[in-house]
Write a structure and sequence with these properties.
The structure is a single chain. The chain has 15 helices and two strands. Helices cover 68% and strands 2% of the residues. Helix 1 crosses helix 12 and helix 4 runs parallel beside helix 13.
Length: 329
């Protein structure tokens, strides 16, 4: 069995590199066309970016000795909520000027309906809401877990995850509501807890569970049997966003990424670059929300060379917050 232990007190370099990779995958997810993603088997790595971010969020929560609610909320306000609200106000203003005043594609009412229905404007605007929900849920989950024997934790999270999937199927939950709720990511709290308690383990059990997850990803992506009410598969946007798929994400895939981290550490420039990008991952995420709102990939259905240029340009321009942050000291 391979066991990787992480620094539980200081800063862990691997997490910065992981966040750097994940935010690059988010940008690729938003600028690649579906046929390109299928060719690259994107569902098996790129779509794991948000689950890995949430696993890391949960892991960092369990590192804390105790929670002071005032400090906890204040930190989330300054780090997540306030920047997100600023970007949303900016996007709302820009869309009002461009789409309402100049192009007349929308009226004010339609713009506000779109804003409310999607939880905000910008590509990936659902993620800050998920982050906030998970952050508010974590202290209560932790309180519950402290009163339940550890050997039952896995079964508890499987039960809760299945019940949420059943609930979504039974009530025929609208996709617009589903995308803004934490339901599909609840199991990742357990994954973050295990990562904190046991480190990254890859034994026979982890390999077996990872293979089971891969089979389910294949099912959700290609076979598409109707597995309701046990799996809510109405939206095609989140292929691997089911608890059964996360064993692969937080075991096999994370282990492969860790091996990549060990390899790239010998190239100091590239490892430092990825780590720096990871440290500014949320700022980059907010910037790409604005960028893809006005430069979406479907607006560039041109020849292959021009599309490749668009992808490279998108990756570079979305790194603007990294350039600014790294040169501000």
């Amino acid at each position: 069995m391979n066991i990787v232990s992480f620094n539980s007190s200081g800063r862990e370099p691997f997490w910065d590199v992981l966040k750097g990779l994940c935010i690059i995958w988010v940008i690729l997810h938003h600028c690649l066309q579906e046929q390109v993603k299928d060719l690259l088997l994107f569902s098996f790595w790129g779509e794991a970016a948000v689950p890995l971010f949430i696993t890391l969020q949960s892991y960092h929560f369990f590192r804390k000795d105790r929670i002071v609610w005032k400090e906890y909320i204040q930190k989330m306000w300054h780090r997540i909520i306030k920047p997100f609200l600023f970007v949303e106000i900016l996007l709302l203003s820009l869309h009002f000027v461009v789409d309402v005043l100049f192009l007349n594609r929308l009226d004010v009412v339609d713009l506000l309906k779109l804003f409310v229905a999607r939880g905000g404007l910008g590509w990936g605007a659902y993620y800050p809401w998920i982050y906030i929900e998970i952050a508010l849920l974590l202290p209560f989950i932790n309180y519950l877990l402290l009163r339940i024997p550890e050997r039952y934790h896995l079964y508890l999270f499987i039960f809760m995850s299945v019940m949420l999937e059943v609930f979504c199927c039974v009530v025929s939950l609208k996709e617009s509501v589903y995308r803004l709720l934490f339901f599909r990511y609840l199991f990742l709290i357990y994954c973050g807890l295990m990562l904190f308690n046991e480190g990254l383990k890859m034994g026979k059990k982890e390999w077996l569970l990872s293979m089971v997850s891969i089979l389910f990803i294949i099912q959700f992506k290609y076979i598409k049997w109707d597995l309701s009410p046990f799996f809510y598969t109405k939206p095609d946007e989140w292929i691997i966003a089911h608890w059964i798929c996360y064993f692969y994400v937080v075991n096999m895939l994370l282990y492969v990424i860790y091996k990549f981290f060990l390899w790239i550490r010998q190239f100091i420039f590239w490892s430092n670059l990825l780590a720096s990008i990871g440290k500014g991952s949320f700022e980059i995420f907010l910037f790409q929300m604005c960028y893809f709102s006005f430069f979406p990939p479907y607006a560039f259905k041109v020849d292959s060379f021009s599309y490749c240029v668009y992808i490279m340009f998108s990756l570079l321009i979305c790194m603007c917050p990294y350039y600014i942050k790294s040169h501000s000291y």
